[in-house]
């Protein structure tokens, strides 16, 4: 035995070897039983001989030959469902005790026929599977005991949403203890598995499910050039409460069964990253690509050795293998499996350079790229994409409008999804949850549709297409018999604004125990008819992604005809000036006449006849559209930062007066004014302007407690000295308060505020706070935690008691404000909610009021009902621990119109006028924004209003700047189908 063991060790072969003398290659035993018999009969020989009994014309077969052969055969198993997969009677994910579900009378988007099939009828779910669609046979129902019957009343039913790029199971709320997304141990880590760091306590699961997401690909972060293996999971809670039990078709080895033939059929997913992010390791692009090539070269060498070994083993040539071991490599096998086509490549890659590099790499090492993720420049380089190795070009997993936060994302276009689809590529809209909380992933598809992606492709882009890219379209992504019972019932057409699930079913299990619903307008039961963007799309391509965004200025007369609504802001609210004369639908269309940027006449039909003879008047038909107040952006870095990740494009950071030792200009220091750092004409500013946001209130960096003095400026102005460019030099004093962001403590900062508001403090800081205390300037405090808000309510009372003067305090962020709503109302403290749909990004914001379907009230609706003045703004999400980065919200300002439209629908109580007020008069009141007697800017939209996916912004009317800025006047209406 000793010699056996020693020999085994020496050769690196498994110690337990049985010598067996055979005559030729063909007589190799095929069954384990045969080997055992052989072992029994030859035991004497075994015990008395050397390990390798190599005799003339004989071959020695290792005892574990059978498992080696199985391993060799498994190398060539291609992932994919077993032949009898579709005759399965029960899902492997079936949870015992789950009742059958019978959904009656649904409008079913099945995913079939390239996303064009819509069925009317029933769906029957049992055993975790879809058992029947359309007409459910009676026999199927007859034998079932307990059935949950859902009357859909004609509502839309779709397969569950599939998110191809998520970081769920990460850190929501952001806590250091569950930050396991990226490895910091080196740029090449294909051996890591995201599964090993999955957080089952992430608050995002429930939130994502409430948006209809049922399956997600969870990927490692992107700091590593090869970051490791992702996992596909269903989001529902399981009885077992483990990450393993959430997996969907886990890749080989994920659950401890390495060579089960079934496990070998399941796809793996390898995260790669190009470009900027791997620079974390001080690698240039050249270094990253080399390191990746080196890694693939290592994998390729082992693969060649494996193939060589297996070729000999499978042909029975054991004699040449007698001193060789199967070239196993626990570390490199995942990359070898990429080369074997068993692991799909999911690559974070933004720019032409990076995509081109990666396409070269795919050809050099001959692996397919399943998808380029982010891929902000992909739309500009279709030929490069087509050159990628393999039969099918990569899919593109992209955002709709979230862009320009880094240089790599600068050339993104809202038309990218449509251009890529026109070129025949698979388009997937993705969340990068929680960059965009995946609860809102469907809205990404809806916005892509608004910007020109056809309806069938837009729906498929978050359902069937990602299911196919994951290699899971044999069971998810479609409503078909035998597929997983993952379906979502919607309160409106899924591409309509604010579409919300009324129920989400995963593996046949109802996920929302008491869904709250709001009634949507009847028109929302059809897909919105998106405007025509053909001209803009062609221009975006013509200008290589940087089409001119400046409008055409008109200081002469403009006559807007065929106007349905003229919503005008007053000091307190927004009213429809055409409504009074309208009455019936048959009323003639309205007219609004503008001279030098001022409305001089409006009315119906002939009311403004006298103006029709105006010389040089330009007539713009709004085709039933509207004129409404232009929106105000709050909470972004517009005007101070062009590209969030590029310091050289930014005003920079603010020193914390509590930290500065000693203060440069003596006690009291100084305070930064945003107006002194303003930059005009940034792309996000112009894009927001083109979307009806004409003014931004921006404060210096939010990242220190005292961020400084905000300014209000025009997003359309070319520079600061232009007429009307600066609306108000100083708007308010801004402070941020959150737990643990940095030293000093919250209590220290509250103490400092108390001192500044109640005592005379010398210096710049003190002087500005005295203006707050005497009521002449508002104090805006960015805060999420109800506990800190409560402290601020007391502080306000305390200060006012002491000074005898009321002052204006506004809470911004305000995620937990509902918990102290009555107290806020009583203290007359208004609230700016950012973002409009709450998400528990940080510990301070963990107690959200999410809105339907999880709660009856949305945060905004709840606060409004309590009489609180509510404004809104977007929210910039940065890296972990820095959730409120205003610069990251710059590209989101353009979606403000959709945010307030969605907030209106989520609330169930807001009128259109009240919704418009959220981003106009309410916000102005809360910020103390004074137009100094000037009228508001107005926005003219064709085909619909600002609050929906139909209206197209044609022009901005600016009395302050004494002009009309015209963006577009032709090809307005031509619904995308
Ligand atoms: C299905 O629902 C629609 C809308 O509520 C209703 O008009 C129709 O009668 C229903 N059909 C059946 C078969 O129940
Ligand atoms: C692992 O997954 C395979 C394939 O899905 C399955 O057959 C096996 O039972 C699983 N094993 C464990 C321990 O969960
Ligand atoms: C107004 O616009 C609507 C919608 O495009 C159109 O149907 C209607 O004919 C237009 N009316 C006039 C008077 O141009």
UniProtKB/TrEMBL annotation:
Domain annotation Amidohydrolase-related: ranges: 415-508
Pfam families recorded: Amidohydro_1
InterPro entries per the UniProt record, alphabetical: Amidohydro-rel, Metal-dep_hydrolase_composite, Metal_Hydrolase, Metallo-dep_Hydrolase
Gene Ontology MF terms in the entry: hydrolase activity, acting on carbon-nitrogen (but not peptide) bonds
Gene3D superfamilies tied to this protein: Metal-dependent hydrolases (3.20.20.140)
PANTHER family referenced in this protein's UniProt entry, alphabetically: ALPHA-D-RIBOSE 1-METHYLPHOSPHONATE 5-TRIPHOSPHATE DIPHOSPHATASE
Protein name: Amidohydrolase-related domain-containing protein
Record organism: Dichomitus squalens
The organism's taxonomic lineage, starting at the top: Eukaryota, Fungi, Dikarya, Basidiomycota, Agaricomycotina
């Amino acid at each position: 035995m000793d010699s056996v063991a020693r020999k085994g060790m020496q050769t690196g072969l498994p110690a337990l070897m049985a010598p067996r003398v055979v005559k030729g290659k063909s007589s190799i035993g095929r069954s384990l039983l045969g080997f055992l018999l052989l072992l029994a009969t030859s035991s004497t020989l075994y015990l008395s001989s050397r390990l390798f009994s190599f005799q003339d014309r004989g071959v020695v077969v290792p005892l574990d030959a059978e498992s080696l052969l199985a391993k060799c055969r498994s190398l060539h198993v291609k992932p994919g469902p077993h032949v009898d997969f579709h005759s399965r009677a029960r899902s492997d994910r079936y949870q015992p005790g789950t009742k059958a579900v019978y959904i009656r009378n649904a409008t079913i988007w099945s995913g079939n026929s390239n996303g064009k099939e819509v069925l009317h009828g029933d769906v029957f779910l049992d055993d975790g599977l879809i058992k029947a669609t359309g007409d459910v046979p009676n026999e199927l129902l007859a034998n079932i005991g307990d059935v949950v019957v859902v009357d859909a009343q004609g509502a839309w039913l779709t397969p569950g949403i599939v998110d191809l790029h998520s970081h769920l199971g990460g850190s929501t709320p952001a806590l250091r203890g569950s930050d396991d997304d990226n490895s910091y141990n080196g740029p090449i880590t294909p051996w890591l598995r995201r599964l090993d760091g999955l957080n089952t306590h992430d608050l995002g699961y429930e939130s994502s499910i409430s948006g209809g997401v049922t399956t997600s690909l969870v990927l490692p972060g992107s700091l590593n050039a090869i970051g490791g293996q992702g996992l596909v999971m269903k989001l529902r809670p399981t009885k077992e409460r483990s990450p393993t039990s959430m997996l969907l078709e886990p890749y080989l080895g994920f659950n401890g069964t390495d060579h089960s033939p079934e496990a070998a059929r399941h796809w793996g997913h390898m995260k790669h990253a190009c470009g900027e992010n791997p620079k974390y390791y001080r690698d240039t692009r050249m270094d990253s690509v080399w390191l990746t090539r080196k890694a693939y070269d290592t994998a390729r060498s082992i693969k060649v050795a494996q193939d060589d070994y297996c070729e000999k083993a499978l042909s029975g040539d054991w004699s040449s293998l007698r001193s060789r071991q199967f070239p196993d490599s626990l570390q490199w096998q995942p990359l070898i499996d990429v080369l074997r086509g068993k692991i799909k490549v999911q690559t974070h890659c933004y720019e032409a350079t990076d995509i081109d590099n990666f396409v070269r790499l795919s050809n050099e090492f001959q692996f397919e790229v399943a998808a380029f993720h982010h891929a902000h420049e992909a739309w500009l380089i279709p030929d490069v994409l087509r050159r990628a190795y393999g039969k099918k070009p990569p899919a593109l997993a992209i955002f709709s409008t979230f862009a320009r936060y880094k240089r790599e994302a600068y050339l993104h276009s809202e038309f990218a999804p449509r251009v890529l689809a026109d070129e025949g590529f698979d388009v997937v809209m993705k969340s990068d949850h929680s960059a965009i909380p995946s609860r809102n992933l469907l809205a990404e598809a809806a916005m892509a549709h608004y910007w020109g992606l056809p309806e069938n492709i837009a729906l498929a882009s978050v359902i069937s297409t990602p299911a196919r890219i994951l290699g899971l379209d044999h069971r998810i992504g479609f409503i078909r018999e035998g597929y997983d019972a993952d379906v979502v019932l919607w309160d409106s057409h899924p591409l309509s604004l604010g579409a919300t699930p009324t129920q989400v079913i995963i593996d046949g299990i109802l996920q929302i125990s008491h869904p709250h619903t709001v009634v949507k307008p009847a028109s929302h039961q059809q897909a919105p008819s998106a405007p025509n963007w053909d001209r803009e799309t062609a221009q975006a391509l013509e200008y290589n992604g940087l089409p001119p965004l400046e409008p055409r200025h008109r200081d002469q007369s403009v006559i807007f005809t065929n106007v349905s609504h003229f919503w005008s802001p007053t000091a307190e609210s927004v009213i429809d000036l055409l409504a009074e004369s309208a009455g019936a639908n048959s009323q003639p269309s309205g007219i609004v006449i503008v001279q030098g940027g001022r409305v001089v006449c409006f009315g119906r039909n002939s009311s403004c006849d006298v103006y029709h003879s105006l010389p040089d008047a330009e007539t713009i038909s709004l085709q039933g559209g509207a004129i409404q107040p232009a929106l105000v952006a709050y909470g972004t870095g517009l005007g101070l930062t062009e590209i969030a990740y590029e310091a050289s494009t930014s005003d920079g950071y603010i020193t914390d007066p509590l930290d500065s030792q000693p203060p440069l200009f003596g006690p009291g220091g100084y305070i930064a004014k945003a107006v002194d750092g303003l930059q005009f004409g940034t792309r996000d500013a112009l894009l927001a302007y083109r979307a009806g946001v004409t003014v931004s209130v921006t404060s210096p960096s939010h990242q220190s407690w005292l961020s400084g003095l905000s300014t209000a400026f025009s997003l359309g102005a070319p520079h600061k000295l232009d007429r009307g460019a600066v609306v108000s030099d100083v708007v308010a004093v801004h402070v941020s308060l959150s737990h643990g962001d940095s030293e000093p403590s919250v209590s220290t900062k509250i103490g400092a505020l108390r001192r500044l508001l109640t005592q005379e403090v010398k210096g710049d800081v003190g002087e500005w706070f005295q203006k707050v205390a005497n009521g002449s300037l508002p104090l805006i405090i960015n805060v999420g935690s109800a506990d800190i808000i409560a402290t601020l309510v007391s502080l306000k009372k305390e200060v006012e008691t002491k000074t005898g003067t009321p002052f204006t305090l506004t809470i911004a962020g305000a995620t937990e404000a509902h918990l102290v709503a009555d107290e806020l109302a009583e203290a007359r403290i208004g609230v700016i909610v950012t973002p409009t749909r709450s998400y528990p990004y940080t510990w301070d914001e963990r107690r959200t009021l999410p809105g339907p379907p999880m709660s009856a009230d949305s945060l905004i609706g709840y606060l409004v009902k309590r009489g609180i003045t509510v404004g809104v703004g977007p929210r910039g999400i940065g890296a972990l621990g820095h959730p409120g980065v205003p610069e990251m919200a710059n590209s989101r300002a353009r979606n403000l119109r959709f945010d307030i439209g969605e907030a209106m629908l989520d609330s169930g109580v807001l009128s259109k006028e009240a919704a418009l007020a959220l981003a106009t008069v309410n916000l102005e009141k809360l910020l103390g924004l004074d137009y100094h007697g000037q009228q508001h800017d107005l926005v003219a939209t064709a085909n619909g209003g600002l609050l929906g996916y139909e209206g197209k912004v044609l022009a901005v009317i600016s009395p302050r700047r004494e002009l009309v800025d015209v963006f577009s006047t032709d090809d307005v209406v031509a619904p995308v189908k």
